[in-house]
Write a structure and sequence with these properties.
The complex is a heterotrimer. Chain A is of the alpha/beta class. The chains are: A alpha/beta, B alpha/beta, C alpha+beta.
Chain lengths: ~280, ~450, ~100
């Protein structure tokens, strides 16, 4: 196990349940680097996740306190936890199903409230845990287990949704941008407010097999690389390019949600003390 | 302001029409018909609940005229609740409004979530972080809470949920009482392999004490507790005694923290295990899956057995700690009426009226609905189950528990409480003719 | 430009500056480290590990130039690259 895994992770859960070549482990390694470079200890961070590949493969790998909520509800649980334990850093690691489908309502409201958590939305562009059905982030036209004639629903980017809802830090990277991701996660953790980092990564077993036609780990990570760069290895343009980088940075510009409630409580109690009422 | 000695007037134990205890009849009980029975002896009235002692001990306080929703709110605050996360819904909306006002006064947090399922998950998260939490809803919201309810059950998170039932199915009649979630509250989530604790108050005063009891039980058993009430109890106004100093209530069980393994003592039915708290650095894992003692997921049959052993038997093996009920005149009864919640009020009056007319009627009012109190139905007499639904839910449990299910009769009604006349007619019919009479809008078939 | 470099460059600079460690019993044989490495450090084992994959091993540690790409790309927390005592920390390389 590498040094950071020894420092932060739970030994009984490593090797993880992830498939070989799955991007989830890579991203988790970068999260650990960000925590380490910020000087955060295991007990300073609460790790929360949901259901699906990103949920199952990360849950309990964290050596400190962690929770795996029901599908889509990690942010609803984190909202309650933040009220009770406001001084911790929250890393909410969820997939595209949790964030962009079943849990989008909670995502929007957590962003609107500026809840002080960092959401890492690890996006493998489908519901891979259940075999590879499409999700709201599957690229248009791609064939999946439940879009055998090509994905006809238009996808959306959850970054746009949270930005519109009022998130104070929004960024997007991919599984071939390790240094950017570490830097961006550090910035995201530095925001006392709602931070959203969207990281696209490859799935070999399902998305690779059905949408890209191969389970070859190298080819699927190259596919991610092409769509990050906008160009294929032979120089030709890829069919689309992801817009990576920091999309919106208004870090620390608005009060954090639990702080708003604590300030209100202080005001209410001060007023009552003045009036002397019960 | 002069202090009133509450103990000498009508007791504040929350008994409809007075608070006799274990065979005594209170002097102040004047709401019920004054002559209590056929013959010289009044029927014995028994109330088994922890608040009988609490009410005696808590003498300094205020007497208010308030609604059930107010009592439920104040009971929660008195028990130490510091988070409410829910969504407004008739008839529980007033609880949300009272909480939004009261919680900031005591340093707590009122959260109005985007829907009930967020509300229940947020309550679970807040409780997991160390704050006592509660939500309040009605049937349509309770249905949305099932996922989170199960999450709280499997992770042994203390929580209190108020379900103020109204007529169903679905939105039904928003301003009328119902009792259609009797089984839903028992099976408040999917997947089986769990027991639940469900309590039901029948007066505003009782709602106050029972809420404190619900929080205590949720801490002792590390489980969500449902307070199953209804639109009438929520909205009606009665006199309510509220103690002055909540900090001095020594019967409130405080939140304690479990700081070491096992986080989940699977395979044991121990009570009074402190709650796990995320954020103390214990390394606890909390999830939706079948789990080990440490909390991470495991896919083995042996682990499922051990987890289920705990979730079911921590409640079943400690039923004595969960027994709460009221009975009237059951010792010499020739017929027993059964009810809970709001309609228990009129049913009890009907029982006492029947006594006046020469029928030795008895009354069982359930306060603990789940785990079901089978021991109250051991007498081999006819039972007349009065409940506020037409499909028959409580009656099925009574049929199961009673020695002869053919002697269990069903008087179901919806949208209005049973009238005293209907109850009397039912009890007379069963005693004198062996069956219920035909009464308009009273449902008698179970199958 | 591709992410993976199937043609390896010859090593530069003094040999043996870097310690490269792979946790072979955790390796799931994705092949990323071998293919992203610009020089020739890794090779495949011919016998399976405890989790039934044929793992990677460090065949030519002396060739390592300390780019840390293998460390960044491993999905299973297997790899540690550190400078041997006495040498300074590597400069960070921009990712592809």
């Amino acid at each position: 196990m590498n040094k950071l895994a020894k420092k932060y992770l739970r030994p009984s859960q490593i090797p993880t349940k992830a498939c070989h070549g799955c991007g989830i482990g890579m991203i988790e390694n970068w999260l650990l680097q960000a925590l380490d470079e910020l000087g955060l200890k295991q007990e300073d961070v609460i790790f929360g996740t949901g259901i699906g590949c990103v949920g199952r493969q990360t849950f309990a790998t964290w050596g400190g306190d962690n929770f795996g909520a029901t599908h889509g509800r990690a942010l609803a649980v984190a909202t309650g936890l933040k009220l009770a334990q406001p001084d911790k850093k929250y890393l909410i690691v969820v997939g595209d199903g949790d964030a962009a489908a079943i849990g989008t309502s909670h995502l929007i409201h957590a962003a609107r409230r500026n809840l002080g958590v960092t959401v890492i939305c690890e996006d493998n562009m489908g519901y891979e845990s259940t075999g590879g059905q499409f999700s709201p982030t599957t690229p248009a036209g791609y064939v999946t287990n439940s879009s055998p004639y090509g994905m006809v629903e238009p996808p959306f980017d959850p970054c746009d949704v949270v930005k519109a809802a009022g998130a104070t830090f929004v960024a997007e990277t991919t599984a071939t941008q390790w240094h950017q991701t570490v830097k961006i996660v550090k910035k995201a953790l530095g925001n006392d407010g709602f931070s959203f980092v969207h990281v696209r990564f490859p799935c070999n077993e399902n998305f690779g097999a059905y949408a890209l036609g191969t389970r070859d780990t190298l080819k699927n990570l190259e596919w991610i690389y092409e769509h990050t760069q906008g160009r294929k290895a032979d120089g030709s343009e890829s069919d689309f390019t992801w817009e990576t980088g920091i999309r919106h940075d208004a870090s620390n510009s608005r009060p954090e949600f639990s702080r708003i409630l604590r300030d209100m409580n202080a005001r209410v109690q001060a007023d009552r003390a003045k009036v002397g009422s019960r | 302001m002069a202090e009133r000695d509450v103990t000498r007037s009508r007791s504040s134990a929350g008994f409809a029409g007075g608070a006799p205890v274990r065979g005594e009849v209170s002097e102040g009980a004047v709401e019920a018909p004054s002559d209590r029975g056929c013959g010289a002896e009044p029927p014995s009235e028994v109330l088994v609940a922890p608040w009988v002692d609490w009410a005696r001990g808590a003498t300094r306080g205020r007497r208010l005229l308030e609604a059930g929703t107010y009592a439920l709110t104040e009971g929660a605050i008195a028990a130490g609740c510091r988070v409410f996360a829910g969504y407004p819904i008739t008839p529980a909306t007033d609880i949300a409004e009272y909480m939004s006002k009261r919680l900031p006064q005591v340093g707590g947090y009122y959260m109005q979530c985007e829907d009930e399922l967020a509300g229940m998950h947020t309550c679970a998260g807040a409780s997991l972080g160390g704050l006592k939490a509660m939500t309040a809803t009605s049937g349509p919201g309770y249905t949305l809470m099932h996922d989170a309810y199960g999450w709280a059950i499997t992770n042994e998170i203390p929580l209190v949920v108020v379900d103020a039932m109204r007529v169903g199915p679905i939105s039904g009649i928003t301003g009328a009482p119902g009792q259609g979630e009797f089984y839903v509250a028992r099976y408040a989530t999917h997947g089986g392999n769990f027991e639940t604790i469900v309590l039901s108050p029948s007066s505003v005063q009782e709602a106050f004490w029972l809420t404190i009891d619900a929080f205590n039980l949720s801490e002792r058993f590390r489980t969500p507790v449902t307070i199953l009430t209804d639109q009438v109890i929520s909205d009606m106004w009665e006199d309510l005694f509220v103690p002055d100093d909540y900090d001095a209530l020594d019967f409130v069980i405080p939140r304690k923290a479990n700081l070491m393994m096992p986080f989940f003592p699977v395979g044991s039915a121990d009570l009074d295990v402190p709650a796990n708290i995320v954020g103390l650095g214990t390394g606890v894992c909390v999830s939706a899956y079948t789990h080990t003692e440490e909390g991470y997921d495991i896919e083995e049959m042996e682990a499922q057995w051990a987890q289920t052993y705990r979730l079911v038997n921590k409640i079943r093996h400690h039923r004595a700690e969960l027994t709460r009920y009221e009975t009237v005149g059951v010792d010499d009864a020739e017929v027993i009426a059964v009810a809970y919640g709001a309609n228990a009020r009129t049913v009890k009056t009907g029982v006492l009226e029947s006594r006046r007319r020469g029928i030795r009627a008895g009354f069982v009012r359930l306060i603990t609905l789940w785990p079901f109190l089978d021991e109250l139905f051991e007498r081999d007499v006819p039972y007349v189950v009065c409940e506020l639904n037409y499909d028959g839910q409580l009656v099925r449990e009574v049929m199961r528990a009673a020695p002869d299910k053919r002697k269990v009769h069903f008087m179901g009604k919806s949208a209005e409480l049973h009238t005293v006349a209907e109850v009397v007619a039912g009890l007379e019919g069963v005693t004198r003719a062996g069956r219920l009479p035909e009464l308009p809008y009273i449902w008698t078939e179970v199958r | 430009m591709a992410l993976f470099k199937l043609e390896k460059k010859p090593p530069r600079g003094p040999a043996g500056r870097w310690d490269v460690v792979i946790g072979e019993d955790m390796c799931k044989a994705c092949g990323f480290c071998l293919n992203v490495c610009p020089v020739d450090v890794f090779a495949w084992r011919t016998a399976p590990n405890k989790i039934s994959w044929f793992p990677m091993y460090v065949a030519h540690e002396a060739n390592c130039v300390g780019c840390m790409l293998c460390y960044q790309i491993c999905p299973d927390f297997c790899i540690d690259v550190s400078s041997k005592t006495g040498f300074r920390e590597p400069k960070e390389f921009a990712s592809g």
